[in-house]
Design brief:
The chain is an alpha/beta fold. The chain is built from 8 helices and 9 strands. It is globular and about 50 Å long. 2-phosphoglycolic acid (PGA) binds next to loops.
Length: about 250
């Protein structure tokens, strides 16, 4: 357990390529991998690159089981703003994966029971092989908002003001952003065998340095990546990292 590896890339193209290389290597190593799939802006270039490789016959997704990372509550199932809808457009369709193959989080009904069943499903097959993650400006992983327990299960959460403000850009108005959500719990994410985190842009600079360098704290969920047994690779662009190389 050597702590996260940090790869600094110069631009969005390189972020997509390097991220796609890491994910593709993991899929080759683990046919039948269960992979937690983040939505958000940052991984989109990486998914486009993976899709291009899939179209060229260079990436076999036949055995991949995608696992939903997080989801808003309070939306209709066919609302295109659900994270599932975004995942379908950016990951499932381009990679030739049927909706039915996804291990999904609930949108409604008995949320607590569905979250417990989700964790049981993952536990029964031995957890995640790979988690593809971004980082929130408050250090969240998925929607595990601070303060968080590293053993937190998959569950319903209230979104923090920082997250609602950051996501307002996807909704037009801050008052339209849902305030409740479900997230894959910290326990499952930290137990993944490999983690690829993508980080982009100046708004992430302060938090990524704090998450990697400050003492591990429940106030920065991503700081727990320092002490997980997972092989963690953080791919961070120059705008987010700043000058200099990782030590
Ligand atoms: P972003 O989201 O990629 O849209 O910045 C990351 C996150 O909130 O985890």
């Amino acid at each position: 357990m050597g702590g996260p590896s940090v790869v600094v890339v110069e631009d969005a193209d390189e972020l997509g390529r390097v991220g796609a290389d890491l994910v593709a290597d993991e899929l080759r190593r683990t046919p039948g991998a269960w992979v937690s799939v983040a939505t958000g802006e940052t991984p989109m270039g990486m998914y486009a690159e993976l899709a291009a490789r899939h179209r060229s016959g260079l990436l076999d997704t036949g055995g991949l089981t995608p696992v939903q990372l997080d989801e808003y509550l309070g939306l209709e199932p066919d609302d295109r703003r659900t994270f599932f809808g975004w995942m379908r457009r950016s990951f499932l369709e381009p990679l030739g994966i049927a909706d039915e193959r996804v291990v999904r989080l609930p949108l409604d009904g008995d949320i607590a029971a569905a979250c417990a069943a989700f964790d049981q499903t993952l536990d029964a097959r031995g957890g995640l092989d790979l988690a593809i993650l971004g980082i929130g400006t408050n250090g969240h992983l998925g929607f595990n908002e601070p303060p968080v327990d590293p053993g937190a299960p998959t569950r319903e959460v209230g979104l923090s003001t920082a997250t609602i403000d950051a996501n307002a850009r996807y909704w037009g108005d801050v008052n339209d952003v849902p305030t409740r959500a479900v997230t894959t719990g910290m326990r499952q994410l930290l137990a993944a065998r490999a983690i690829v985190m993508v980080v982009s842009g100046p708004t992430k600079r302060e938090i990524i340095h704090r998450a990697l360098a400050e003492p591990v704290t429940s106030q920065i969920p991503a700081s727990f990546l320092q002490e997980t047994g997972a092989a963690v690779t953080v791919v961070v662009d120059r705008e987010a990292w700043g000058e200099g190389d990782p030590s």
